## 1
Amino acid sequence: MAASPRFKVYDSSGMYRAACHEPEAAACLVSFFGDGATIRDGHQKKLWVEGVDGCAGESFDRVAQIVIERAGG
């Protein structure tokens, strides 16, 4: 059985929107949801805050690298 996706995406109001296996997919979604949207490790630890950490739409790969580093590899 497949594992639950690690990366969770929340919009700026704190509403849970999606779960992603790939951090690049999560980056695409936070870019869509805009400032204040977050990528989290599970449902707690914030790894990226759109508009605070940068603009995910500029480079999904860069966001993925930062997210992986902040998640501990």
## 2
Amino acid sequence: MGKGDSVNQHYEETNIAIHDTLTKRFFMADKNNDIETMLKVTAQIGYIQQIHLGLNKNLLAENEIKNINKRLDRIPPEILEQYVTNPELLVGSKDI
């Protein structure tokens, strides 16, 4: 895991390495005309790709949360407290 990498980024890099290894096995099986191994490796690659998509969604969510937290950190606590005690300021209506 690289310095500054999140856990999700580490999982994504590991997932890509596994995908590359499975792809190499697929092409080796294709070269030997081993259909059974090709089918097994194809299923494994599909599973890894599904995991990869889930990780990408987590990374995007993680980055969005970090961006929101950065913005919130710049707001003085007194102003944030006003929104907590008076939620109508956020909605713009007194019918909450």
## 3
Amino acid sequence: MMKAWFVSDSYCEYSTVVFAETRNKAKVAAMATDCCEDMEYTEVRPLRFKAADTMYRGLIEMDWDNVNDRLFLVDHGWSCVEPDLIEECEDCFAHDRCDKYKDFVREIEEDEP
């Protein structure tokens, strides 16, 4: 049975969700992702992410550009690392669920006279 694993880079700036049968296989899978490609095997620390088990659809990694994956990830606290403009957020199909977008809107509303 494939299990979901949360993995982040050494600086906890980027993260991903990979699917593997075991923790060790998750480490190997994570090393093939953009998030962890520069990490050594001993640096990769997968954590079980049971809520994402149902998202497995035959791929090793969840895909931020896939609508269902992004909505799921945003619902679990993910966001773009640093969107530059609120317009970028407004173009995102998950903006109404995104905490970072809500913070942008709140800041704009606070700055208005």
## 4
Amino acid sequence: MFNLNDEKEFSTGKSIFNGGEAGKVDNVSIRVEKKQDSSNQPDYKLFANDGMGEINEGFYYPTPNPQKNEEENNKTAKMHVGRVLHVAKAVMGDDYTFPEVNGAKEAFDTLFKLIKENSEGKKFNVYATYGTKDRPGQYLGFRFFNFIEPAGNEKTTLYPNAKDVMEKLNPDAPKGNSDNWI
């Protein structure tokens, strides 16, 4: 008899970040990769590895939306730069003085360079979810804000919030007779 619901019985041997569980994950290492070609891949990827598996998230340079005015585009760019700054502060510490930059692209390049050059050998705590109630996801990923801190923080800032999806989504069963799939 085969139990098709037993993941251990049919394991592919692939490790899963935090065992597939959402929540705070302690003592992970992080790394950054920058896009090397002109593909549609994200300009940067941030990876977190807990020793068993890895998650990553792509970051694209903020670009103006022609349907929004300059003020709205600046607000959106600052939000995305603020997200990367959050990671850089976890790496560099709260007392680090960041250089001035001329725009979102330069901010991304500067911050990701600092993260890449200063994160090796350091450990961090991250908060992983299956998205939010407004945007649930099938895979574990970083929360949009407040998702990383240095490991060993005396007082953690990584707690669940009401919008976090903490359980993996199960796809709906196919409609109709499952015996007639051809």
